[in-house]
Specification:
Order of helices and strands: HEEHEHEEHHEHHHEEEEEEEEHHHE
Number of helices: 11
Number of strands: 15
Distance between the termini: 92 Å
Helix content: 25-40%
Largest sheet: 6 strands, mixed
Shape: globular
């Protein structure tokens, strides 16, 4: 019996233990990071979260501080991170990194891929983090908190799909998607352009929140430019992930009254066509529409015509605005590569084919279904 006890004690001493593990309460968790580039150095802004407060509910204690932002510089991202470590009290964990914001200066510098390489090679980070660009001061942007003091994990930058399902303006982009798009022919990617908005306020004053204003189009080596607000509206009709968007139309010849119509289930299709040794594109878009009633119009045909004209106008405007800045906002070069490879091989230059104002040969909009919501008092 005694030999068995001694054997058990001896075995327990040599078994692997968890003495080298880190205690969660003795670690700091990075939730978001901003990357800038100034005077030949990377400047990182790390957003730390107090998970002990957030874990209790989705609405933390209003008296507590949800987040702090640290700043450090370095000739590389890794050197900047080491400099940040020297000014913290506890070990930093990167495994909860949810998003990264790249400054316009970084994108213009041509150092984007060096910054991305640092993230993808580090073992704690994931390819699922969301990616944004901004021209605002990153230290101030990362201090923005959600409406009603909701937890930072519920902010628009950390959980963009929740809001995108309700209003599909600019499609969120993950680091994985960004790398894939940069590697595909065309080598351009549309990244959401994020700002702090002053559209909300509390009894104490303005309450800044995150807002997507448009896109920045980037390559591995440069920033092509940005399309903001109305210039970017055509993108929602060219994305198969658009779930819900809206357009506003005048009520007939009335210059005062307008009606907003919901458009959902968008199905775009791009077909490259070889014509006179050049490539042009036929685009068809199918949508469903939800109206609030008669909308001051007589018959569905008039309504369909006005909706299709508006969608067509927005698609063309975004394409032409992008063309002015040498952007391939609809990734037409990639479509040509996939569907007309031989012609693409003859025409492409660094993965891109030349685009002109006439590159879109056809643009057909089809409304598959019109649904009506509740009738109003005037319609009964």
């Amino acid at each position: 019996m005694k030999k068995g006890v001694y054997c058990f004690i001896l075995c327990s001493l040599i078994l692997a233990s968890c003495w080298d593990n880190n205690e969660p309460e003795r670690m700091l968790y990075i939730h978001g990071i901003g990357v800038d580039y100034k005077d030949g150095q990377f400047e990182i802004y790390a957003q730390l979260l107090d998970f002990s407060n957030i874990a209790r509910s989705d609405q933390p204690n209003s008296e507590s501080i949800q987040t702090e932002v640290g700043r450090a510089k370095g000739r590389t991202i890794d050197e900047a991170a080491v400099n940040l470590y020297r000014a913290v009290d506890q070990r930093i964990l990167w495994g909860h990194l949810s998003y990264v914001v790249f400054s316009q200066e970084l994108l213009k510098s041509g150092e984007l891929m060096q910054a991305i390489d640092s993230f993808v090679r580090y073992r704690e980070t994931r390819y699922t983090m969301w990616v944004y660009t901004s021209d605002e001061a990153l230290n101030e942007l990362l201090l923005v908190t959600p409406i009603l003091n909701k937890g930072m994990t519920f902010s628009r930058v950390a959980d963009p799909l929740n809001a995108y399902h309700q209003e599909s303006f600019v499609e969120p982009v993950s680091l994985r998607t960004m790398l894939i798009d940069l590697d595909e022919p065309g080598h351009q990617v549309n990244v959401p352009f994020m700002v702090s908005s002053d559209k909300w306020e509390t009894p104490k004053g303005p309450d800044p929140v995150y807002e997507v204003k448009g896109i920045s189009v980037i390559t591995k080596s440069e920033l092509k430019g940005s399309l903001l607000d109305g210039e970017a509206e055509g993108l929602r009709w060219m994305s198969k992930h658009t779930e819900r968007a809206q357009i506003t139309l005048k009520n007939g010849n009335d210059q005062i009254q307008y009606t907003t119509i919901i458009v959902d289930k968008v199905k775009p299709k791009i077909k490259p066509v070889e014509e006179n040794d050049q490539l042009r594109f036929d685009i068809s878009i199918k949508v469903q529409v939800t109206t609030s009633g008669q909308d001051g119009r007589k018959g569905d045909q008039k309504l369909k015509k006005e909706i299709t004209e508006q969608i067509k106008k927005e698609v063309e405007r975004t394409y032409l605005k992008g063309l002015e800045k040498k952007m391939d906002v609809y990734r037409l070069s990639e479509q040509a590569y996939r569907k007309k490879l031989k012609v693409w091989q003859q025409l492409n230059k660094d993965g891109e084919i030349p685009l002109t104002e006439d590159s879109i040969r056809k643009l057909d909009i089809k409304i598959e279904k019109i649904k009506t919501e509740r009738t109003t008092m005037h319609e009964r």
